[in-house]
Model the fold of this input.
Amino acid sequence: MNFNKLKFGSTIGIIGGGQLGKMMAQSAQKMGFKVIVLDPDKECPCQHVAHQFINAEYDDIDALKQLGEATDVITYEFENISASQLKELVNIYNIPQGYQAIELLQDRLTEKQSLEQAGAHILPYKQLSRVEDLDKAKEQLGYPFMVKTRFGGYDGKGQVLVKGEQDLQEATELIEQQECVAEQFLNLDKEVSLTVTIGNDNQIAYFPLQENEHQNQILFKTVVPARSNKEEEARKEVTKITDHIHFIGTFTVEFFIDKSNKLYVNEIAPRPHNSGHYSIEACDYSQFDTHILAITGQRLPQAINVLKPAVMMNLLGRDLDLLEDEFGNHPEWHTHIYGKTTRKPDRKMGHLTVLTNDVDQAEEELLNYFKGRNN
Ligand code: ADP
Ligand code: MG
Done:
C-alpha cells in the first residue's frame, strides 16, 4: 500500500488523549508535526501536550469531522472507537490505518475468528452468545477456562476465571451483561509480546521480543530482550497475521507460552502498547517514533536496535502512593508520569524504565521497592 508522505510541520489528529496519545504526540512534536487531540476528558494526559484540543465524545461524528478538517492525517490511541464511524471518516480523510483492524480486533470473537483464518496458533475457544452456551464451553474446554466479554475489555476487566462450578454464577452474570467468548485457561510459563510497525510499501520494523509479567491481569513489568527462544516463531505468527489483516503503524501481538514452551497468540492491540514503552529509552527508535514515521509516510528504520537491555515497571495509583518519596532518589529510574488527575489504586499513572547490563539484578532491586505493594 502507498499513501501520502506528509511534510514536517503537517498536523496529526489523534483520537484519544490518554498516555498513549501523549507519548505519540511527544514523538510527533520532536519531528516537527503539530498535534490535535480529541478526548471527552478535559483533564486527560494529552491536554497538556496537544497544540489544540477537541473536547468531545469518541462517537461525536461532527467533532471527528472537525478533527479531520483540521489535520493532515488521523490516527488513534485505542481500539474502542466505532468502526462504522471510522469507515465513514476513512472515505473522507487521510487515515492510512484504515478501519479493518479496528473492526476485527475490537471484538474478541471476530479477533479469534480472524486469527484462526490466518492460521495463527491460538487457544481453543467457544462463542458464548447465551448463558446456555456455558454448558458447551464446560464440555469442550473443561475447567479451568476464562470467560471474556466480546467488547470493551482491558487490563483484565470483563473477564472471569471459571475454575469450577463455584464460578459459574459470576460467568453467567457476565454473559447476561454482554455476549462473551470462553477460552481454555493456560498454565503459563511466560507471556511475551512483539511490537511491530508497518509503513508505506509494506516496510516492516520489528521491536525485540518483550517478556511480560502481569499481576491481577494488569501488566506489571516488561523485560527486554525476553529470556525466551521464541522470537523467530513469534515473528512467523506475526507474518501470518499481517498477511490476513491490513495494518499500518505500530501494533503489538501478545503471546502465551505454556510449560512445554508452546507459543499461542493471545490478542492483538492495533496501536502502541504498554509492553513497548521501554523502547523510548532502550531502543534507537521508540514504538511511538516508528508509529508517527509510518502514518506520515516516512521511511522506517530497517531495524530497531536495542541500545541497552531494560526493565520497565508500570506505576499504578498504589505504586505512586508507595514510592512517592523514592522517585527523586533514583536517577536510574527513567520515570514517566502521565498527568492523570485522579489517582486510583489500579489505574496506570505512569511507568519507569531502567537500562542495565544485568537485567536479573535490576529486576531484583526493583522488586524490593514494589514489595510493599498491596495486591
Ligand atoms: P486484556 O485485554 O485485559 O489485556 P487479556 O486477554 O490479554 O485481556 O488478559 C489479560 C491477562 O490475563 C493476560 O495477559 C494473562 O496474564 C491473563 N490471561 C488471560 N487469558 C488467559 C488464559 N486463557 N490463560 C492464562 N492466562 C490468561
Ligand atoms: Mg492483553
User: Anything to note?
Assistant: The mean pLDDT is 96. The CA atoms of residues 20 and 77 lie 6 Å apart. The first strand starts at residue 11 and ends at 15.
